Amino acid sequence: MEEKIVLQTEACRAEIALLGAQLESLQNAEGLEYLWQRDPKWWSGCAPVLFPMVGALRGGRTVIDGRIYEMPQHGLARRRLFRLISQTDSEAVFTLCADEETMKHYPFAFELQVRYTLEQASLRTSFRVFNRGAVPMPYAVGGHPAFNVPLAEGERFEEYAVVFEREETASCPAIVVGEGLIDPSRTTQRLRGSRVLPLSHDLFYADALVFEGLISKTATLSGGSAGHGVTMEFSDFPMLGVWSAANDGPFVALEPWCGCATRTDETDEFTAKRWMRVLPAGQSETHSYTVTIF
Predict the structure, then answer these.
(1) How many structural domains comprise the chain?
(2) Range in 2-6, 216-220, 286-290 the model is least confident about
(3) Whole-prediction pTM
(4) Residue 35: which CATH number?
(5) CB 16 within 8 A of CB 116
(6) What backbone torsions phi and psi does residue 78 show, to the nearest 5 degrees?
(7) 117-138: per-residue pLDDT in tens?
(8) How far is CA 155 from the centre of its chain?
(9) Under a CB-based contact definition with an 8 Å cutoff, are residues 151 and 28 in contact?
């Protein structure tokens, strides 16, 4: 049986798996489960860590230093076993280092540390990326936590909304169905001087909504008569994906991204991708987001 790491406060309980360092449960003190529980009828994930790639590559391939490398959607980390390097009642740190297998797909000497910290009803997830090599290292990183919608019996998906902290006017680019590429030449306005994005299943029939350049640094997913929901603070990330399964999935993912799928107006060069970070040799960077349940 796969080992799970448990963190707990008086207000919240979290479980994390060593496979992918993936959050697999987030409950309040009464045992209400907020995190999607991996029903493959809709989606077999729940909160994968996205590294060193967010989204899809054209044909699943990219070019690094003149060579072609294959990389699966959302990168390598979610399919790898991490090692637990420290743990307390309310915090755990996991690490994944480059090895012979990762070098076949991503030729850099990386270390990725994922730190989960519980403070009352808030869970902070931090990605610390190290360049352990001698050359600059391009990377993208992001989160993909999905939350049950609805959260209480008797509620409906359409009673929920994503509410941004500030009024926004925002358009989202189209996703090329079947390829996962972002087409910036085709956009749909989703917010017009509003904070509220009402949810409906048909929003996601053509894949995710990708927001960029938001004024807001927090977004709240809530609704229904019970008044439960989650608030995400994502100020370290320039993009936010909002996604659910196209077959009327009973969940919504809020995805803070630094980096995104290949755009139709981009080449296949890895370093040319939008919001790609380039980390100098011997340096590290940290990107964090916080989810608060209520």
Answers:
(1) 1
(2) 2-6
(3) 0.96
(4) 2.70.98.10
(5) yes
(6) -70, -15
(7) 999 999 999 999 999 999 999 9
(8) 26
(9) no
β-pairing verdict for 91-97 and 251-258: unpaired
How would you label 192-208 residue by residue, b for 16+ Cβ within 10 Å and e otherwise? eeebebebeeebbeebb
Domain that holds residue 44: 4-293
Number of continuous H segments (helices) and E segments (strands) in the chain: 1, 21
Cα gap 69→61, rounded to integer Å? 6
18, two tokens: 């060593």
Q: DSSP states of 241-291 as a string?
A: EEE--TTT-SEEEEEEEES-SPBTTS-SBGGGSTT-EEEPTT-EEEEEEEE
Q: What is the Cα–Cα distance from 293 to 46, expressed in whole angstroms?
A: 16
Return d(Cα 170, Cα 190) in angstroms, integer.
6
User: Which of these, 92, 63, 59, 96, lies nearest to 79 by C-alpha position?
Assistant: 96
